[in-house]
Amino acid sequence: MRHEKYMRLAIEQALKGQGETFTNPIVGAVIVKDNVVLGKGYHTHYGAAHAEVQAIDSLTSLEESIQATLYVTLEPCAHTGKTPPCVERIIAGGFKQVVIGQRDPNPIVAGRGVAFLQAAGIEVIENILRDEAYRINLIYNHFHETKLPYVTLKYTSSLDGKIAAKRGVRTNLSGSETWQDVQIEREKYQAILVGSETALVDNPSLTVRNPQGKQGLTRIIIDRSGRLTGKLMLFTDTSQPTWVFTENSNLKQRLTHQHVRLFFEELWTIEQILMVIAQEGIQSVFIEGGAKILHAFINGGYYQQLLIYLTPHLLGSAGVDAIDGAIVQQPNLKLISIEQLGTDFKLQWLPQEKGG
């Protein structure tokens, strides 16, 4: 139980860095000797010292780390990146023991940190509160384990499952509280994706319009047939990069903006698109529709979270269904949370393995 107690403190530290460390994970560390917490630290932002180093630097004297135990939520790195290897500071500090929440799935770490510490004679204890440590870095873990981005599907609908009053008409269903919450959700991701129908009908800018916004989004549009025009907000607003996946090579003649990248193939599959996004270093994607895009991702099983904002409206048979097409295989979804936002409700679902 002692190890769990201090690992929970390390997890609390890690959470302080949430939203600040892209594309690094959030990590927390705690230094303990004789059941007394002597130092704490977390990874504050991308490029800053890692949690282990922050904790060591918080000590009042270098002698305090000698024969102490270091608790860290993620395996310490053994390579030089933006910062020197953490294992070197740990070894130099004279620690007798390192307790780890989870191994780092990033192939440049992936057990090397543990091996480095053990070779130096430091006892390493692994997988303490592993599930909790894993959950705080779901996006990072998924990306490095699957080589694909973590995908959240989001839509706002009426009570009868419609996302618009009729096809081709922009319909505002949600209240101000939901609008604000969507801005907060967008901020958690590196990219936001829509289909050409949403881009043409809603003409969105797909930015984070939130005073607390800390990072820009890469805007991605799937436009297979090449319907987009350069007059849309996605192209006239040059504040964020915009990517277009298309099967129409002529689109490049219309979209010549410097902030726009076109990805052309004669046939794009959803998996191929996600692979390209991952190869470009994007670890997470927030998908806001429309109906055909949601259908394609759900049918292919290419999502890790489903976020539905349910609004107090009834649009009837003329309305546009949230998902355009038959679901080939019914997903096994688990409801994680329900939250009321003004007159709307936010429902978070996670897909489960069959029988899970």
Automatic annotation (TrEMBL):
It catalyses: 2,5-diamino-6-hydroxy-4-(5-phosphoribosylamino)-pyrimidine + H2O + H(+) = 5-amino-6-(5-phospho-D-ribosylamino)uracil + NH4(+); 5-amino-6-(5-phospho-D-ribitylamino)uracil + NADP(+) = 5-amino-6-(5-phospho-D-ribosylamino)uracil + NADPH + H(+). Transmembrane segments: none annotated. Zn(2+) binds at H50, C77, C86. In the N-terminal section; belongs to the cytidine and deoxycytidylate deaminase family. It holds the Pfam family dCMP_cyt_deam_1. Converts 2,5-diamino-6-(ribosylamino)-4(3h)-pyrimidinone 5'-phosphate into 5-amino-6-(ribosylamino)-2,4(1h,3h)-pyrimidinedione 5'-phosphate. This is Riboflavin biosynthesis protein RibD. The lineage of its organism: Bacteria, Bacillati, Bacillota, Bacilli, Bacillales. It comes from the Bacteria. One of its GO terms (molecular function) is 5-amino-6-(5-phosphoribosylamino)uracil reductase activity. InterPro entries: APOBEC/CMP_deaminase_Zn-bd, CMP_dCMP_dom, Cytidine_deaminase-like, DHFR-like_dom_sf, Eubact_RibD, RibDG_C, Riboflavin_Biosynth_HTPR. GO terms for biological process: riboflavin biosynthetic process.
